[in-house]
Amino acid sequence: MSREDPPAMRRIPLSLTSLALVCLLTACGGEQGPTEAATPTVSPSTEPSTASVLNATTPDPMPTSAKPAPQQKSASGTAPATTTTAPAPVVKAPLTCAHLAGAKLGSSKTPYNGYPDYLPLTEGQWSGEDGATVTLQKPCGIGDLDGDGADDAVGVVSVNSGGSGTFYTVAVWRNSGGLPVFRALTDLGDRTPVVSISVAGRRATVVWLTRSPSRGMAELDIRRTSVYKLSGSTLTEVSHSDAPYNP
């Protein structure tokens, strides 16, 4: 009895047998060619990229609607302080008793001894056509009477018209740039000489001699101290005190 091939083997065509042999000798299980000839295939990396790591570790800033806080200015940014120099106080020119020797006495508003205009003193005197002689006496006081900060002058003058009587008058000159300008006067009477004049606290203190009502004109027995204040062009006695006087 002869051995026969299985039926399945008899059904395989010759062409398929040849194809299988070629496959075994090449890519289908045979030896592969040199690796240098193969085209490399790049597969996507499974490791995380640097950008993704940074994005994962650095959170995006959260949007905010709050306004930024104002920045505090430093002291160095402030404007430099300006130094203001106070104006120097106005210095009033002094008025002295010597200025009264060439002053004007009286005015049309406040006349002296009934004269309609002022009398110009020359070296402390004035002589009129009527025979009257006006003489500036020695007692004098310097001080601020009107409160303007400048020292005024208070003096005394006498007038003699050729008779026995000599009439004394206290006069005030205000300080106008160091020059005397007549301001006010007050009469003391006949033969009432002035001993002293002082000015303080916007008051003028005049010490002068007078007499009791029972005494004659030549009999001086009272030493009077009168205090005057200046109001406009008026010199008013505000008080006085008397003390006995014995020549």
From TrEMBL:
Bias type Low complexity, positions: 37-53, 78-87
This protein's record includes keyword Signal: yes
Region feature Disordered, mapped onto this chain: 32-87
Endpoints of the signal sequence: 1-29
Keywords per UniProt: Signal
Identification of the protein by name: Repeat domain-containing protein
Organism listed in the record: Micromonospora humidisoli
Taxon lineage: Bacteria, Bacillati, Actinomycetota, Actinomycetes, Micromonosporales
